[in-house]
Amino acid sequence: MRRYCFFYFRVKNFQKTENVKSIFASLPATQAVPMKKSQPIGIFDSGIGGLTVARMLEKELPYEQLIYFGDTAHMPYGDKTPEQILQLSRKIVSFLISKQVKIIIIACNSASSAAASSLRNEFWKQVEIMGVIRPVVKSIVQQQIRHVGIIGTQATIQSNIYPQILRENGHKIDIFQKATPLLAPMIEAGLADSAEMKQVLSEYLSDPAFTQQEALLLACTHYPLIREAVSAYFGHSKIILDNAGPLATELKRFLTEKNLAANEKIRENEFYVSRYSPHFEKTIETFYGKKIAVKEIEL
User: Fold this and answer.
1) Which of 8, 47, 69, 144 has the fewest beta carbons closer than 10 A?
2) Residue 69: beta bridge partners?
3) Domain boundaries, the chain
4) What are the angstrom distances between the C-alpha of 271 and each of 10, 55, 250, 268, 274?
5) Strand arrangement of the beta sheet that strand 174-179 belongs to
6) Main-chain dihedrals φ then ψ at residue 272, nearest 5 degrees
7) Side-chain half-sphere of 141: how many Cα atoms within 13 Å?
8) pLDDT over 70, % of the chain
9) Residues with Cβ < 8 Å from 18, sequence gap 6 or more?
10) Residue 216: beta bridge partners?
11) Taking 90 as the threshold, does the pLDDT of residue 60 lie above it?
12) How many other CB atoms are there within 10 angstroms of residue 11's CB atom?
């Protein structure tokens, strides 16, 4: 019999406040180096899950050039320590800065929770850095959701980042979190629609605590590929949230306010991974919605 280990905890009864804007207050500070509209947007993830974010950004910001880096040689980040994640992320940020990006999107919940703050403090003079967590928290508050379940990697859940951000602003939201470490590797392996995935999802989502939640946040950029399966498990009775949509909204707002939104597509998007294999071709197409040319580069 196959056994799975789960980690979860519950956070509730935060004080209420109406200060929604403060949720996004720390993203991002003005950097010392002036940027131009024509510069690209950098995106990185622990693997290819962040392509779901890149896909949304291409849809919402069609004139922007995207430069994507997937750290496939070290995926997943979810089972790594914060120090390891920061070390890996620092190298990727330096690479993207070398590509003269005007902003970097951390399209990974594990890296956003473990490394975003340190990366902003280290690179603020060179580039803006935006994670995937605060935009979706802002969306949750704006939608007045009061009971939300969260599934994500071990690193994201153990960081307690979502309750912490809500606690900063005193919002009274009941949160139930569960680490789901098997999902991202299975999705990367092309098993999103498999019988094995259905079995693992059933093991994770059968926790009775989820029945009390009106919404479920897919707190991993891989998880949009199993969005329909998650929704179907609950009989399509819950609001299913992910990071990509709210992030695209906040990025569009930020670029517009800073007068950095591109008004024409000058160069094609670029995609890099730290380890390439032919297996990725089909999986990448699934994540991004179309075939793309991917280059392997060692940092």
Assistant:
1) 144
2) 44, 272
3) 7-20+134-243, 37-131+245-296
4) 38, 12, 23, 10, 11
5) 7-11, 174-179, 147-152, 215-219, 239-242
6) -130, 150
7) 26
8) 89
9) none
10) 149, 240
11) yes
12) 17
How much is the CA Rg of the chain, to the nearest whole Å? 18
What does pTM read for this prediction?
0.86
Average pLDDT over the chain, rounded to an integer: 88
* SS3 (DSSP) at 36: coil
Q: Enumerate the active-site residues.
A: 108, 220
Residue type, 9: F
Sheet containing 295-296: give its strands across. Answer: 128-131, 103-106, 41-45, 66-70, 270-273, 295-296
The β-bridge partners of 9 are: 177
Q: Which of 31, 141, 46 is nearest to 87 (CA)?
A: 46
* pLDDT reading at 3 higher than 80: no
pLDDT at 170 over 90: no
Q: Which of 5-9, 115-119, 164-168 has the lowest mean pLDDT?
A: 5-9
Q: Where are the alpha helices (DSSP H) in 124-194?
A: 133-142, 154-159, 161-168, 183-188
pLDDT of residue 66: 98
Least confident of 201-210, 246-255, 284-293: 284-293
Ranking 12-16, 116-120, 250-254 by mean pLDDT, the lowest is 12-16
In this structure, whether the domain defined by 7-20+134-243 belongs to CATH 3.40.50.300 is answered with no
Can 7-20+134-243 and 37-131+245-296 be said to share one CATH topology?
yes
What is the mean predicted confidence (pLDDT) over 5-18? 37
Return the CATH number of the domain spanning residue range 37-131+245-296.
3.40.50.1860
pLDDT value at residue 299? 87
CA distance 27 to 20: 14
